[in-house]
Design brief:
alpha+beta, four-stranded mixed β-sheet, four-stranded antiparallel β-sheet
Length: 409
């Protein structure tokens, strides 16, 4: 279908849509003491604020999809526009001039769950969920981590036992982002205990509101509760909602993990979030506290800028590879690791600039509020695979180093 509309005509349509529905992006200026500086990672939100955020994101997503810009390169048989990567790039180039509405509730569903469904689900399931996910009618989450398994994903214990045309799932998942408002969840389970731990795993798609699913929020030190623990008590799933072959779930999980690291990495590629990527805020803060000429502060600002720029270009290269139809590789682990390391650099710089103001509300504008960001960075270094796991992946797959020795029992 990509020959049905030229890229130039598509770009013109995109410009008109964005001009009508979005505010133009202006170069950021920041003066210390004026405006809003409330920032953070894994922020605390009221139930009402969270509900409003999800409703607003759904409305925007549906508007975007119905105009033909919601899934530009997606196959038309599943609701996509069926256009080329060139059309996608054209839209992104035009969108760069506008402030797009928040789409954070869809990051996991579109960045991780939908690609896995498209790659591994049967036709009936693709038709049922892909359009609904991309249009924002439903929200997806991922149920991988467990309390005992930690970063060792293959060590999970949630079990799935076959019962005719259904499977019965029992176990516990933890650190499930967005489970509180998700409609469907992609879950990895153990279906065979006699096979090696990377075998005997099977992936399913479950209804997050099905009988036996219990979602409990996990309060973080930021005050927010964006993570959850999920308990499954004999949850029934039809075999049609199995993703991939029985006992071959590890390969399916890799599809999700590679896309997850891309989503997290590209989200943090320039420092992560509006605050961590805002050098105008950081430089204004340095000036306000008389540290703009401090050689150590200047070096840290330059270091953050250099690493963020390098990360951004690396992410663009990885995205271009995916848009060309190639499978994401270790560069996604690079993106994830670089993003969290830039978050850590930002946190350290903020701590240097603010000192005790981070933890003591002195009443001075714009200081104490930054503690929410600093407290959220450790969680970012865990989500989607710890920094240590990313380094192992890069050491083994990129540098060709030998694997770490396994546990001796």
């Amino acid at each position: 279908m990509s020959d049905m509309i030229s890229i130039d005509d598509f770009r013109t349509s995109a410009k008109a849509f964005l001009k009508e529905h979005c505010e133009p992006r202006v170069e950021e200026t920041f003066e210390w003491g004026k405006g809003s500086d409330k920032v953070g990672v894994f922020k605390e939100k009221s139930k009402r604020a969270e509900h409003e955020q999800v409703a607003s994101a759904k409305a925007w997503r549906q508007q975007l999809f119905d105009a033909g810009f919601g899934w530009i390169t997606g196959p038309s048989e599943y609701g996509g526009s069926g256009l080329s990567a060139g059309h996608q790039r054209a839209f992104l180039e035009e969108a760069g001039s506008y402030k797009l509405p928040d789409e954070s509730p869809f990051i996991i569903g579109l960045g991780m769950v939908a690609p896995t469904i498209q790659a591994h689900a049967i036709q009936e399931v693709r038709e049922r969920y892909l359009r609904a996910l991309w249009r924002g009618e439903i929200i997806g989450c991922q149920l991988f981590s467990e309390p005992i398994a930690g970063s060792d994903l293959a060590g999970i214990q949630t079990k799935a036992e076959r019962d005719g045309d259904e499977w019965v799932l029992t176990g516990q998942k933890v650190w499930t982002s967005g489970a509180q408002f998700a409609d469907v969840g992609e879950i990895i389970t153990r279906t065979n205990t006699d096979k090696p731990k990377h075998k005997g795993l099977t992936m399913f798609l479950i209804d997050m509101r099905a009988p036996g699913v219990e979602i409990r929020p996990l309060r973080q030190m930021t005050g927010g509760a964006s993570f959850n623990e999920v308990f499954l008590d004999e949850v029934r799933v039809h075999d049609s909602h199995r993703l991939g072959d029985v006992d071959e779930g590890w390969g399916v999980a890799l599809t999700t993990l590679l896309n997850e690291r891309m989503s997290i990495g590209t989200g943090m590629g320039s420092g992560g979030g509006s605050a961590m990527g805002s050098f105008t805020r950081l430089t204004a803060m340095a000036r306000h506290f008389g540290l703009a000429d401090d050689p150590v502060v200047r070096q840290k600002l330059a270091n953050l800028f250099i690493h963020s720029t390098a990360s951004r270009y690396s992410n663009l290269r990885g995205l271009a590879k995916m848009k060309a139809g190639q499978t994401p590789g270790p560069e996604m682990s690079i993106a994830k690791l670089a993003g969290t390391q830039n978050a850590l650099r930002t946190s350290d710089l903020l701590s240097d600039l603010l000192g005790p103001r981070l933890v003591a509300d002195s009443g001075e504008w714009g200081t104490y509020s930054w503690s929410e960001l600093v407290l959220g960075v450790p969680g970012a270094r865990i989500a989607g695979g710890t920094d240590e796991v990313m380094r192992n992946i890069l050491g083994e797959r990129v540098l060709g180093l030998p694997k770490d020795p396994g546990h001796q029992r």
